[in-house]
Design a protein that fits this description.
By secondary structure, this protein is an alpha/beta fold. Helices cover 46% and strands 14% of the residues.
Amino acid sequence: MTKYVVFDLETTGHSPNNGDKIIEIGIVVIEDFKIVADYTTLLNPGKPIPPFITNLTGIDDKAVESAPCFTDVASKITSMFKDSFIIAHNVPFDLGFLNEALPEAGYTMLENLVIDTVELARILIPQAPSFKLGQLAQYLNITHDDPHRALSDAYVTAKLFLALKEKLFSLPFETVQQLMKIETKLQSNLEHLLTQHLELLRFSSSTNEEIVSFHGLAFKKQTDLRNQDIKLDMAFGEYLDTIYAPKGGLEKSINNFESRPGQQRMSECIFDSFQSKQHALIEAETGTGKSFAYLIPAIYHAVRTKKRVVVSTHTTQLQSQLLNEEIPVLKRLLNFPFQVALMKGKQHYISLEKVERELSKYDADNYDIALTKAMLLVWLTETNTGDLDEINFPAGGYSFIRKVSTESEDYTNPHSPWFTYSYYHRARKLAEHADIVILNHALLCTDVFNDYQHIPSYDYAIIDEGHHLEAVASQHCGLKLDYVHLLYTLNQIGSGGDGNWLATVRNTYPALQSAFTIEACGNLFNDLKQEVDDLFRGIYHYVHKKRYNRQNVSDIGRIQYRINHEDFEDRFWNTIQDMAARLRYLLQKQCAVLTLIEKETEVDIHVRDEAKKLKDILQQFHESIHHMLITRNIENDVRWIEAEGGGPKNAVYLYSEPTNLSALLEDSFFLKKKSIILTSATLSIKGSFSFIRSQLGMPKERTVEERIASPFDYKEQVRLFIPNDFPDIKQGDLDDFVYSTCEAIVSMAEITKGRMLVLFTSYEMLKQTYFFLKETMNTEEYYLIAQGLSSGSRERLKKNFQTFDKAILLGTSSFWEGVDIPGEDLSCVMIVRLPFQPPNHPVYEAKANALKEAGKNAFMELALPNAVIRFKQGFGRLIRSKSDRGIVFVCDARIKKARYGKYFLESIPDVQVSYGNTSKIMDEASIWFNKKSD
């Protein structure tokens, strides 16, 4: 009988090396996969318990005053662990703490075999939203009565382990066999569990009809595609009444439903545009419920006319939200079936063919790769889509994920044994049969600028978050080249020595040995690497030489330099061009070697495909180098260099983007499609759509414009405060301005009890503010979170902000939009500076120059409209429901003092504005804000 001992600790801090001690231990014993005993005790740490730990656990100094010391219970604890597996949720932390305490008490460290339920959960339920104990318990419906108390956490960990064991014992034979090969690279000792399950499988006659076994892989069976011939005779008005009428479909289907008058108006506008074959710009202010508003007419039109409608979002996350939240509601609500397909770029899907090939390579795997492989093996038995975004892989596993994605899979090759099982091929087929195809702007633009080869044909589209379309289109029409990507590709090819791809190919196929030699290829590879390094180092030094004349350090600490006509007269630039020409020559020679492999019929088809893929990438590099460094005159194009200020001397990035896409989008998109709807909460400036329409090339005579007002009562729900006594940055008082901002944050935090989102336009100013606040604020009272300084993704920082009372979140860039923090979690948005783009940013500079040459005002035509749209996005973070209430505080007095300030104020909802000295408006803010508690 195998014994498992599950334990959890509460401690005074995170580091025993810094003197932190155990204050509580909880132990649960499992035998025969049943809980048979438990033990818990408080422990006197011999030192004060920090307030943060007391707030977290409820354990204070008084509670442990008469508790035993660790030495008093060490004997009992070690006896419980005898001859057992040790289980903990994050074994390195808990066991590390215990093994620091045991020698101090005169006992030897524990060396038992271990199982880490964090790691086990990542492998067996890789699609879980989080692997923290509380969130896993919620995900698996495990009751967690007393979080952050040792015995309760130990019981939950024990129940989690038993649930994970059941999941492991449900895996198919092939998956378990593959996991056995990986097990030695993992932190948990799973061999006995895997062996036990294999023995059970060998004597079992039952089979899982949902699982396909092929070439040593087990994966979920894909369901057959079925076409449904639906005849929809209902008139659109009648259709809308069944959905929007009081006590109608939406109200019955959604908990806490709020009636939104603009929602139906938006649906009608979209349907009318489809019917009249016109494009539309629809600004739907916050709270409109635009997702339902556009899906409802899209579904009706697609089913009624049998013409698919494409819905494009800015991010893949919003795609998933539509598919997993809004679409299920509409499927329940509507009395007719409709088909929806989610489609992404090829890099988002896994290739089973590549997985089979890569799984045979175990010896060189590091921990992250081994964990990634284990997660993939289990996930394949569950996924219907093969969409890699369903899993959060370890950071070190993404290099492996790139290898096994469908990006270079030849999904059109019906002779491949894996053709039937291609997830990407299936996604395309689903899209061809669907009424609604959901994708993102990146894939939409890839399709538009590649002769519509990537998604099924369509004439009608709805583009959500449409204010991002121009930027995404520019990136897809542009080029990017950097040292790391170029070197990574060269290393994939290999140097010609033993053990690399190129040498393996040459040695495997005799027909190639006479065509090229190892020595020749090795020299070519080494020459290529040297030329790449020389070129990027040369560019780095050139940019640093020029920075003394023209410098812009971006938010991420990069020096940006725009390539101008005068650079081509500089002798140092001529040297760079010479280096670029040599590199292009060597790239051509390397392409010739790959062409030999690609065309040799004796070579395996997979090797030929790999050679073609690598050759195509090198040819793209060849063309990009010519475009960005050698070609002198390129109209309607901006080229620039970014270099890491304090980074390696070859950390250089080259970029190229068109300065004006309007004509291209008009010809390639808007004139070719019958009706394109663009919607967003931020499309207009001072009530006008002319900026966005001209940016995108939307024909005015074919474009309907509509503004849908928010259902929120902004005059009651929001107050806007603007101080008039902040130092003027233009006068060089940056430090004084930051100091005033910090004082305002502290004062406002006292009014709103934290719950503040502070938005910056400069990362340097954010950092300066953060460190000043850390010195001056009571950080035991306020939890300070800063983007780029506090660890975690944007979503993780947002969750931390919502978790802690009195939290303050400092954000820049991505926090200006797409962050939804409803209710009392957010009570104040502070905008530090009006969000103008830096005037010396290369793209802005090039666009501004083009406008000036055309006799236009670059500030009014470009800088101001972009800043207003960004400002509206930041303003919109505050109010997300009818019950929300809060303060917007703008530190930048230009919004009142400057002549253009009215464009900002007249582009947001009508709110009461208070403008005056900081002390006065803080008093006003306190009085107004505290009214809500009356």
